[in-house]
């Protein structure tokens, strides 16, 4: 169990839901604030931004390595620079967005992509830092963020187990002990077949940290399954309306879907429980509907019990059906009416 901004995060707490705005503000501060309000209404626990500029991310080159040439990509044909220029959240927007989130009862923080962003976010007193999958091997960045004395949430997309180990070690060496690793598949959108949720309990055991899911799949099913496997944090991209477009809109949830996800992950966590057999507290009333042995024909005193006059039926107030062989062939101690539950005191 750890704490982020005073909120408990762990197996004994409600799954911590992070709404990732990313570039879904579509270059409008008004829209960004509207997203904050809409997500706050869903019951989300935290809102997350991304802190970078196109110049801190890449070079303004329009060919070669800097051009996205992948027919499967949502951003095929775009340059990295243009994509980041469109998607970035202006740094002067961070304070009003964070303040709106705070007013609405949510935590707010961001993903820094370089050292200057870490320092900028420190000045805004964020409750934690998020490290993106594409930066999880940038150990100098990890150390820089870890040195601020706040929890780190680190996506593990594309990282090998050894690389994750190096990242966790770097964070701990820099003074950070409150770490959350997010299982992540860095495809947009990601296929459920490639998520491998069984990695969640393995990560927890391997590194002794809280573990969650950064979910780029469509819908909510994968996130609900992740909670059933022990995820204590869920991160999803969010938008007002996918139809409005935007760099991440295609794999983002709308507010009604966020509300459903928060509800269903809470249900999933509640349902995990422990190892338990037999009647639960709420099943006591249902026990009457089990089958049990009843007299199905009037029986005279001394008459033999047989398949003709006793049978396993509902309700469950008689002896268990497993006793029928012990009872068959025995004689009735007294006259018994049809509809009487069979009990040992009816036998001679």
From TrEMBL:
<dbReference type="InterPro" id="IPR006190">
    <property type="entry name" value="SAF_AFP_Neu5Ac"/>
</dbReference>
<dbReference type="InterPro" id="IPR013132">
    <property type="entry name" value="PseI/NeuA/B-like_N"/>
</dbReference>
<dbReference type="InterPro" id="IPR013785">
    <property type="entry name" value="Aldolase_TIM"/>
</dbReference>
<protein>
    <submittedName>
        <fullName>Pseudaminic acid synthase</fullName>
        <ecNumber>2.5.1.97</ecNumber>
    </submittedName>
</protein>
<dbReference type="GO" id="GO:0016740">
    <property type="term" value="F:transferase activity"/>
</dbReference>
<keyword id="KW-0808">Transferase</keyword>
<dbReference type="InterPro" id="IPR036732">
    <property type="entry name" value="AFP_Neu5c_C_sf"/>
</dbReference>
<feature type="domain" description="AFP-like">
    <location>
        <begin position="292"/>
        <end position="348"/>
    </location>
</feature>
<dbReference type="Pfam" id="PF03102">
    <property type="entry name" value="NeuB"/>
</dbReference>
<dbReference type="InterPro" id="IPR051690">
    <property type="entry name" value="PseI-like"/>
</dbReference>
<dbReference type="InterPro" id="IPR013974">
    <property type="entry name" value="SAF"/>
</dbReference>
<dbReference type="Pfam" id="PF08666">
    <property type="entry name" value="SAF"/>
</dbReference>
<dbReference type="InterPro" id="IPR057736">
    <property type="entry name" value="SAF_PseI/NeuA/NeuB"/>
</dbReference>
<dbReference type="InterPro" id="IPR020030">
    <property type="entry name" value="Pseudaminic_synth_PseI"/>
</dbReference>
